[in-house]
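Input chain follows. Return C-alpha cells only.
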Amino acid sequence: MKKSFTCLIFFMFTASICFAGSIEIKGSTTVLPIAQMVAESFMKEFPEINISISGGGSGNGIKALIDGTTDIADASRFITIKEVKRALNNNRYPVPFAVAYDCIIPVVNPLNPVKNLSIQELKDIYTGKIRNWKQVGGWDKRIAVISRDTSSGTYEVWEKKILHGARVYPGAQLQASNGAVAQAVASNKYAIGYIGLGYLNKELKQLKVNNILGTPASALDGSYPISRPLYMFTSGWPKGDVAKFINYVLNPYKGQKLVKKAGYIPLY
C-alpha cells in the first residue's frame, strides 16, 4: 500500500511537470519592457506557466511567428502585406492585439542646447543634408547620427513618418535595440537618436518635434506627430495559456497598469 501511494505521488509530480504550460515571446525591443513586466506578474499568479522572452526587433518577431518558432510576436508597427502573404502560405493567420500606445522620442545628450526640431530638420539630419548642430541652433560640431537597424519596427515608423520613404545616410550608426540607442546618445554629447517612450531616462534629453513634446496626452489626442500603437500578434485566435496571457495584458487592472509602470501609455 505504501509503495502504491509513493508511486501515485511520483506520478502526480512528474505529470505536473510534463503538463506545465509554456509561452514563447519574441520581437520588438520597444515592447520588451512591457512583455517582461507583465510576464513577471503573470507567472506569480500562474506559476505553472513559464514564459520565455527575447528581443531582436519587430521584423524578427513576426518572422518567428510565421515560422512557428514563437507563440507571440511583439511588434512596434503593424504587420506588412508581404508578411501576411508569407504567413498564409505557411498556414498561419496573424491576429493583432494592440496592447499600448507609444511616442517615438528624438533624444540628445543632456548637455546639448537644442530643444526642438521640426520634422523637416529631423529628416535632413537623418538623410545627411544637415550634418552640423550649428545649422539647427546648436554647437559648431558635427552631428553623430544614431539610428535603429532596418529589422526594427521603430525604424520603420521613423522611416514612414520622418523620412517619408528616404533612407538613412550611410554615416549613421545603426543600433539593434532601444537600449543601445539610449546608451550611445547618453555617452556622446554630439549624438542624436530616437527611442520608445519607455526608454527615456535622466541620461537623455527629450526633444520637442514641431514644438510639441511627446507625452501620453499628446500621443492620445494625436497632436504629437510620431505616436503609434504597440502590438502583440498571435498565430490564429489565441487559445489556452496564450489566450490567458493576452487577456492578462489587456486587463485594465493588471496588464494595463503595468504598461503605465513600464513607461508607456495604457489603452484604458
